[in-house]
UniProtKB/TrEMBL annotation:
Residues 4-228 form the ABC transporter domain. This is ABC transporter ATP-binding protein. The lineage of its organism: Archaea, Thermoproteota, Thermoprotei, Sulfolobales, Sulfolobaceae. It comes from the Archaea. The keyword Nucleotide-binding applies. Keywords: ATP-binding, Nucleotide-binding, Transport. One of its GO terms (molecular function) is ATP hydrolysis activity. InterPro entries: AAA+_ATPase (IPR003593), ABC_transporter-like_ATP-bd (IPR003439), ABC_Transporter_VariousFunc (IPR051782), P-loop_NTPase (IPR027417). SUPFAM superfamilies: P-loop containing nucleoside triphosphate hydrolases.
Length: 239
């Protein structure tokens, strides 16, 4: 079964065409990276899948349902590009609040579990507005994952994180074995660590899609995957 489906999606902002007939689908449980240069349309795609923007044209379905439906909101975890928790609430309060809104049985306990999982104990009584950018990102990731979402959409999730924290977040995400994951990034090493499949987009269209293995095989021996992607982006997939 397909858990994420986009068909001929068009989204314009004034005279800028952000998505220009974008189509792809992701089977349930698939781990996919959405790759593309700045301005390619990655964030717009994720916002549409999260139900925050509606497309001008085309069809979008999450498990066969509209992304704006309540059913989808329950099973979706979305990390925005520049996620901003409630600034005047502490780390603990932010997590407890979201856990309550999500209707989890024991919000305080779940908040504490996420604090331990993401190594935020030292900051649990710090207001979000006073956190460093990296710790704010960790809190945002905790808020995205605390209800064990079936569908996970992450927009550049490892931004601002130091290397050990990147490794921590990668290992946490690896535990979401049955969830469907779509992670946008322009950094190939992140794509290869988190995903088995890649969808490369540019100018709001799919340029190439396939497994990361297939992508590697398109290169010469020992050619870095970044260089293969750069070639696809400039010359097209046929080379
Ligand atoms: N709210 C907006 N208003 C106007 N233009 C926008 C808006 N959001 C995105 N765009 C434009 O749409 C295109 C795609 O943007 P975006 O989806 O953010 O790309 P990416 O995340 O791949 O860098 C860009 O040209 C961007 O400037
Ligand atoms: Mg973006």
């Amino acid at each position: 079964m397909e858990c994420i489906e986009l068909e001929n999606v068009v989204k314009k902002f004034g005279n800028v065409t952000a998505l220009d007939g974008l189509s792809f689908s992701i089977p349930c449980g698939g781990k996919y990276a959405l790759i593309g240069p700045n301005g390619a349309g990655k964030s717009t795609t994720l916002k549409i899948l999260a139900g925050l923007l509606t497309p001008d044209l085309g069809n979008v379905k999450i498990k066969g349902m509209s992304p704006t439906s309540k059913e989808v909101k329950k099973i979706l975890g979305y990390l925005p590009e520049d996620a901003m928790p409630y600034r005047v609430l502490t780390v603990l309060e932010n997590l407890e609040y979201i856990a309550s809104l999500r209707g989890l049985p024991n919000p305080r306990q779940r908040a504490l579990e996420m604090i331990y999982l993401l190594n935020l104990k030292e900051y649990m009584y710090t207001e979000a507005g006073k956190l460093s950018r990296g710790n704010l990102q960790k809190l945002s990731i905790a808020m995205t994952l605390l209800h064990n979402p079936e569908i996970i959409l992450l927009d550049e999730p490892l931004n601002y994180l130091d290397i050990p924290t990147q490794e921590l977040v990668i290992s946490i995400l690896k535990n979401f074995v049955t969830s469907t994951l779509l992670v946008s990034t322009h950094i190939m090493s992140i794509a290869t660590r988190l995903a088995t499949n890649a969808i490369i987009i540019n100018h709001g269209r799919v340029i190439w899609s396939g497994t990361i293995e297939e992508l590697r095989k398109m290169g010469n021996e020992n050619e870095p995957i970044e260089s293969i992607v750069a070639r696809i982006l400039t010359k097209g997939p046929q080379i």
